[in-house]
Amino acid sequence: MALLCAPLLAACTASPARAPLAVPESSSSSPAADLPSAPATRAAVAGIKSAPTVRLAETDEFGLVVRAIRSQGRVSVDVDRVDMLSGDEGEKAAAAAGQDYANDYFLVNNNPRTRRYVLAGAVHIWRVDNAHADTPRAVTVTQWLTYLHTPTERKPLFHFDVENGLVVGIEEQYRP
Fold this sequence. Notes:
This protein has 176 residues and is mainly beta. The chain has two helices and ten strands.
């Protein structure tokens, strides 16, 4: 399996280096474009601090994908959890870290532990389209993996809905 190094994590705060992402295999998954959107609010989950989602009704995990592999027909992702702080909390945390708070949020990544998840066969994935940031668009697993493997200056953050140990929904977090 060919590997493509992508600096997905040289990121929010100091964090150890991570394994490179694997190049995705092809897939015949189709986008979930006809799915109804979930409420703009989400259930509160202890320990997760992030902005609200547009499509997912709840978030069980929030962070950076540091590794994604398709093997034997399954896709697994390693997620490095981050907290997205805003308001006074974000401003104080940014000041304490000597970091900029110009975009009205601050990312805290103070735990190097990653969590591994497997995507459900019928996972629904939404990506932010910067031209229409308030309306994420449905993408296939292959399109999402390709996006993850595309070198970029930005480190995209994702919300994950996990049910029975499998990721059933993924939504990219818009960041200005």
